[in-house]
Amino acid sequence: MATGQPFRRKEAVGKALDSATRVIDLLNEGARLLATQRPGEALTPLREALLLAPDNVSVAINLGGAYIMQRKYRQAAPILERAAELEPDNAMAWLNLAAAYLGRLELSTRATQDQAIAAFEKAAQIDPNLHNVHYNLGLIYRTAVRWRACAHFQRAVEIAPMTATPAIGCNCCSRAFPRSLRQLAMINSTASDHTLSRLTRSRLTAAQSVQRRAMTHPVG
Fold first, then answer.
1. Terminus-to-terminus CA distance in the chain, angstroms?
2. Residue 41 CB-half CA count within 13 A
3. Which of 14, 76, 78, 168 could form a Cys-Cys staple with 100, CB 3.0–4.6 A?
4. 63: three-class secondary structure by DSSP
5. CA-to-CA distance for 8 and 52, rounded, in angstroms?
6. Backbone torsion region of residue 219, taken as left when φ is above 0, otherwise alpha when ψ lies between -120 and 50, otherwise beta
7. Are 140 and 116 in contact, with CB atoms under 8 Å apart?
8. Segments in the chain below pLDDT 70
9. How many of the other CB atoms lie within 10 Å of CB of 131?
10. How far apart are the C-alpha atoms of 5 and 84, rounded to whole Å?
11. Dihedrals phi, psi of 219, to nearest 5 degrees
């Protein structure tokens, strides 16, 4: 009986590493497709990755982003809510969740705007230097609370001047604030850039952690 334990332990480690490696490959493929503006194609590898690793926040953020880029906000929201629950200090999870709640700004309601504002503000609390958080809060407040819109636009420009893009006027002051790319595309590109920059390192660390746990807690 005892002689079988090392074999089972080795087998468990091998399976865990195979699964972790598969998740890395799927996540990299999904992120690559998102970076080339192919969110529909990204759904297949990212869905499989989430099935293999349901608590992987990087997978959830990318999958949620893929849905948002296709304007499938209802599908994105629960995935991103889970990501924010798993990592409440992850600004990117809240940022993408805000985008899912808001949907298309011109079609949004007061209720969805309030949800989005709460999520955007949570992201800003975690990382005050996310310029797109302030930009999008400015867009939401622009028609209702103009002084807040002005403050958020100004903060966005202070963080990341975007002088190469067309300008929009702020209704509450004479200053013209640069306009970024489309609201949701901007959110997703920033989130994807952030995720891609940490992707391989974070997933390799996860694979190593899986190996250590398997060796520390043998099966059988």
1. 9
2. 10
3. 76
4. helix
5. 21
6. beta
7. yes
8. 1-16, 147, 149, 159-220
9. 19
10. 38
11. -85, 140
List helix spans (H) across 87-182: 91-102, 110-126, 131-141, 146-159
In degrees, rounded to 5, the angle at the alpha carbon of residue 181 between the alpha carbons of residues 122 and 198 is 55
Q: How many CB atoms lie within 10 A of CB 125?
A: 12
Residues ≥6 apart with Cβ < 8 Å to 147: 172
Phi/psi for 126 (5° steps) reads -75, -45
- Candidates 40, 14, 62; CA nearest to 190 is 62
Q: For residue 48, what pLDDT is reported? A: 97
Given this model, what pLDDT does residue 88 score?
Answer: 97
pLDDT on residue 100? 96
Q: How far apart are CA 24 and CA 58, in angstroms?
A: 10
Helix, strand or coil for residue 50?
Answer: helix
The reported pLDDT for the residue numbered 5 is 66
Helical segments of 128-182, H only = 131-141, 146-159
The two structure tokens encoding residue 209:
């952690």
How confident is the model at residue 116, as a pLDDT? Answer: 93
Q: Which of 116, 115, 137 is nearest to 128 (CA)?
A: 137
